[in-house]
Structures are given as C-alpha cells and as structure tokens.
C-alpha cells in the first residue's frame, strides 16, 4: 500500500503522492451530493481512473467544458452556474474540480460564488496543476483578453494529488509542469535542485518524490501569504519576462506553452539576479545549462525587445511604472520586490537571445 | 456639528447617523483612485448631495446601471467589470457603492471579484439599505430567476450611512425599510420597539436615532455570524412566509414591495410564535395592530394557500422538506431553527387573511 503525504492545515486537507485518491476517499462522504467538473480530455483519459479509485463515490452530475484556456470565460462560468442550478446543487453539496489548471481556476471561482459559496475539492490531473495551479486558492476567469481579471482568492476544502493521472499526459504537458518544478527548486528548495540533477524532464523516472516536494514548497508559501502581500511574490520568479514572452507568442501564429515561456524567463531573470543580487555567474551557467536540457531556445530576436518591454509595462505586477522583480539571491533562495532598471531587463533578453556566458 | 455613531471592528468601519459623510471623508484618501457605482435615480437625487458632502473627493470614473432589481444580472456585472477595466481600476483602487440594496449587492460582488478583489465602501441611500442591505457582507446577483444565486459573503471596508439622503425617498421606500426596522425591534431590541411606539412610518419625525439603533442591531448580529451559521438566522423572522407572499405577487400583475411582504410574513410568524414558542397572544395583538398602522392587508385568499406552501418548499432555507422558522420567544427576543408543521403555517395564513384575534 502506498502512503501519500498528508497535511491538514485546519482549513485545507492535502493528500499528495501515490495512493492519495484511495486514502482521501472518505472526504467525499461529508457532503450531501457531489458534482464533477472536467474538460473533454479529462473525461476521455482520467474519469474512469478517478471513479475506479474512489469506488464508493456517488456522483449526482457531471459538468463539462471544452479543453483549453479559452474555456476560462464568463460564458463557461454561466454554463457551470446554470448546470449546478439545474442539477439542484446546494450549499452543502460538493464540486470536484477534476483536471488541469483551467478546470480548478474556473471551477473554484464558480463554486466560490454559487449561492455565495459551495465547497469544492481540487483533484489535479496534470503535472503543472499538481504542483502549482491546484494549490493556493487563486481562482478566476479571463475577461477582456486579460488573464484572471475576474476571480477570487478562495480555498478548496482539499487538494488530492495522485500521480496516477500523469500516465495520461502528452509530452508538452510534462515539459510545462517541469518549468515550475525547476522554479520551486531555484527559489526555495536547494535539496530539490539536487534531486532534479542534470537531467531533462524526459529522463526523470520516479516522479512521486519530486511532486510531493514541489507541491509542499508551494503549500509552504501560500499558507503564510494567501493574498500575495509579500513572500508569495517569490513565485513570480521567471514570470515577469516570461509572461511578456508568452503574450508575444500568443499574438503570433505559433503560441508556446506557459512552461516554455517561464523557462526562458528564468534564464533572463537569473542573469538579472547575478547583476543586482548576489547570485554567482557560475550558478547562472548551471541554471541555463539545465533549463536548456529540457527547453529549446525560443525564436526571439533583438527587434522583439521593444515589444517585450511594452508588454511588461502592462503586467498586473507593475506599479507606477517601476519594474519590481522576484530574483535569486542564491540557489534555493529568492527575494521579492527588487526594482530593476529597464536597460538591465533588455540586456537580460540579449543574454538569452545570443546564448551568452554570464560574466 | 452632528456626531454620527462610529465603530471600527478592525475589518470594517461604520459611520452612522447625521454628519456621517463629513466625518468619514478621510477614508477615501487611502486609495490611489476612486470609482462610483450608482443607478439612474441615485445620479438624479443623491449624487450632488454626496459630492458636496465630500468636497475633497476626486472621482476617476462613474459607472451607471438602470434602477431596479432587474439590474442585479450577470449582464450588468459584466458591464461593471468592463467599466472598471476600461477606467484602469487596480487592486489598490476603491469602488463606492452609492445607492440602495441593488447597488451594494451587485457592486460588492463585482468589486470582490475584480482582479480577485478590490476594496469597496457602501454608502446606502435608502432606509432599507441603511439599516439592512448595506450591512453584513451579503453580495450577489440574481441568476435564472433565483435571487442572489451567484454571490459572495464579503465585507466592505466601510459603511457610511447618512440620513441626509433619505429626504429624496418616495413613500414606498420609507415603508419598505420600516418593515425591517420593525423586525429588528421584534427580534432583538425591545427598546427600539418602545421608541417606535404606536405610530405608522409616516408619523415618525426624527429618524436619526432609529436608524442608528436599527443599523447597530444588524451589525451586532452579523459581526458574530457573517456566514449565517446560527444567530444570523433570526434575521429571517417574517421572511419565510414573507418570501412566499412576495414570489406569489411577483407572478401576478401587481407586484408588492419586499417590505409589504415581510410585514404580512411577520403577522403570520408572530401567530406561529404564540403557538409553539412562549410569545403571548396579547403581544401578537400588539404586533398586528402596529403593523396594520403602516401596511394595508394584502389581497390573499384561502385558495392561494396551496401555492404559498409550494413556494415555501422551494425556499433556500428549507432542508430535507422540513420547515425551519425563526420565531419570537417574546418581544425583543427571537430563536432560530424551530421546526414548524405545515398545518400550523397554513393556519397562520388564515389568521392573516381573516384578520382574526390570537387566542
């Protein structure tokens, strides 16, 4: 019998690792009726696995949305509220968000606002959602082309993270999650950095321990700063330049994954860290080498830099025109709210483009 | 200089009574930019009054919705989110909900979900919202013909209640608010019951003390039970039968106000209180007489009773088919979660219809 990591923080119960589903099954019996939200892919690849692992569970109704980020819309939120209403869900019912980040984001928002709040539990099925999106209470929908413009900070009753689902993942989903695993190692978990070692994500054979460690890192952060007032900001490492790169490619006909954008962003921001924080250049070299093992360099050139800077200025995190970054002080230690001059950011993108050496 | 009642509960600041606006003006300076939500009537009758009372206030933008309950819709929520986005509101901005219950309900919901939560302050302009709707953190919109089907329990940063606005009210708004004032007296404030005395709402000359007292009653309740787990339920006195009556008339071509419905509901539920709680029949007589001074009897007949019972069964507060009421133990003291048999409810409606004497 597998033994998952179990943590009860009073407000949230976490079950993480092999055997999590079986171990947590008793949670579902606390509710008068249970509904499951999922997308088409989850229905195809994960639903049977889920229902088989929780044999006593009686689901009163299933709610489906299309796969993909475009489902995080007000129209699909209306669909979910309407479905809950039609299915007769009450405040003592439970919504299970079975899927990746899109499902837990919109599902948490809809549950949190249905009849002024019905309880929900996240059962993440992708690497990215298992170690990141399903943890921390950020929910929301996109609005007017702005990510998470409408949403809530609201806790799920539980997060049940079982690696059993990961067998169903396509390679690009592994890669996208791996960027955030790498980020957790860099900002707060030097031991995880050692465990990851000099391997691409394709070479990792045993994911269970990595997932438990990485999820615990995220839990540690959000437990003490749910509202992103201070320490939670370190999770933004790699994401300021990363988001700009992601938006840049979204406009092109070749969109990239969030993980690919964050991987590039981490290379840039590691370089910035070496120039205004104490991170050493040989660490920047090691970070760059390792990221390059899993992520091909993106096709960005000098002429894209002005647009990237412009995109960064529109970032939610930018205030009064000042760029505030979360940077690495050393491997496994990040700091937040470091003001960075635009010229240095531009140079960091050149460092990435030209595949230079930090010195 | 007037001195309003001031209470700072750490999470919420209350300014209630004559002079509240002037006294609280400093609150607005905490925010980088300020936006005002209102309806057409408020713009016409209250906006100048408001802006004159807070002379230093710089409003970055006004957001308007049509007057009336039908504005509590997802379409108008989208309009508000879109307006905040277009006006460049951030998480450090402030939304002022200037108006009655519709404005604070939808405004609180939209602010509470905009960028995962921007602060808002309620400035209620009707008697009903001053002593009830603007206090207690219940926000929401109607959905699929269901009242407040989508919403949040979320606190405003402050409630600023200035009777100066009440001069703009039409008589039916006075009446509607007066039903809830009467309810507060009955469920928890015998002193207020004495102050109200044997007068119709038209005969009250000095409202300031009544508003402060009644608003404080509501604050006392919701401070200790925001989520309506126990004591807050006593606020439902008069509302189980009352809501059924309100829905019944909504379907007809002669809709009545919420206050008229609650007034009738209180007469029925006072009678029930005398039959399964210790309330005395002479108290029921006094309650009925006083309510009759302000509210005409509604046109309900014996043949409407089955439909009213059916409407009551659909109430959010009903669980497992059991009718649980909040009832009066004595004047100024209510209890909640009292199971009532359907036959007794039917008889209470007959008591109302036939204008009988309690015995």
Low-pLDDT parts of chain A are none
Tell me the strand percentage band of chain A: 15-25%
CATH architecture of the largest domain in chain A: Up-down Bundle
Total tally of structural domains of chain A: 2
Rg of chain A, nearest Å: 20 Å
Q: At the first level of CATH, what is the class of the largest domain in chain A?
A: Mainly Alpha
Reading the helices and strands of chain A in chain order gives EEHEHHEHEHEHEEEHHHHHHHEEH
In short:
Two copies of one chain form a homodimer. With 359 residues, chain A is α/β, with parallel strands linked by helices.
Account of the protein in words:
- The structure is a homodimer of 359-residue chains.
- Chain A has 359 residues and is an alpha/beta fold.
- Chain A folds into 2 domains: 5-168, Rossmann fold, CATH 3.40.50; 171-353, Up-down Bundle (Dehydroquinate synthase-like, alpha domain), CATH 1.20.1090.10.
- In chain A, helix 10 (239-251) packs across helix 13 (305-313).
- The mean pLDDT of chain A is 94.
- Chain A is 45% helix and 18% strand.
- In chain A, strand 1 (5-8) and strand 2 form a beta hairpin.
- Chain A starts with a strand and ends in a 6-residue tail after the last helix.
Key terms:
359 residues; homodimer; Rossmann fold; alpha/beta; 2 domains; two-stranded antiparallel sheet
């Amino acid at each position: 019998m597998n033994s998952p990591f179990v943590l009860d923080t009073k407000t949230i119960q976490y079950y993480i690792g092999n055997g999590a589903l079986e171990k947590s099954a008793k949670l579902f019996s606390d509710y008068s009726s249970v509904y499951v939200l999922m997308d088409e892919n989850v229905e195809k690849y994960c639903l049977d696995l889920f229902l088989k692992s929780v044999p006593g569970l009686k689901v009163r109704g299933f709610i489906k949305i299309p796969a993909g980020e475009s489902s995080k819309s007000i129209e699909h939120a209306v669909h979910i509220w309407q479905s809950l209403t039609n299915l007769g869900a009450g405040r003592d019912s439970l919504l299970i968000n079975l899927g990746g980040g899109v499902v837990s984001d919109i599902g948490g928002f809809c549950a949190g606002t249905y009849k002024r709040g019905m309880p929900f539990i996240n059962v993440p099925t992708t690497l990215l959602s298992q170690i990141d999106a399903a943890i921390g209470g950020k929910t929301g929908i996109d609005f007017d082309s702005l990510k998470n413009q409408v949403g809530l900070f609201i806790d799920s009753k539980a997060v049940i993270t079982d690696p059993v689902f990961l067998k169903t993942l396509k390679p690009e989903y592994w890669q996208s999650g791996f960027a955030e695993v790498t980020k957790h190692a860099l900002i707060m978990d030097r031991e995880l950095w050692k465990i990851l070692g000099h391997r691409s994500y394709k070479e990792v054979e045993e994911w269970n321990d990595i997932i438990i460690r990485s999820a615990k890192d995220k839990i540690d952060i959000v437990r003490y700063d749910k509202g992103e007032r201070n320490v939670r900001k370190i999770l933004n490492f790699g994401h300021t330049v990363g988001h700009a790169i992601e938006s840049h490619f979204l406009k092109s006909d070749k969109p990239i994954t969030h993980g690919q954008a964050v991987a590039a962003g981490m290379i840039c921001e590691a370089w910035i860290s070496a120039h205004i924080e104490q991170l050493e250049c040989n660490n920047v070299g090691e970070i760059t080498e390792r990221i390059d093992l899993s992520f091909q360099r993106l096709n960005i050139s000098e002429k894209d830099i002005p647009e990237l800077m412009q995109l960064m200025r529109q970032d939610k995190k930018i205030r009064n025109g000042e760029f505030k970054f979360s940077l690495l002080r050393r491997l496994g230690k990040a700091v937040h709210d470091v003001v960075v001059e635009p010229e240095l950011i531009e140079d960091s993108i050149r460092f990435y483009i030209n595949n230079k050496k930090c010195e």
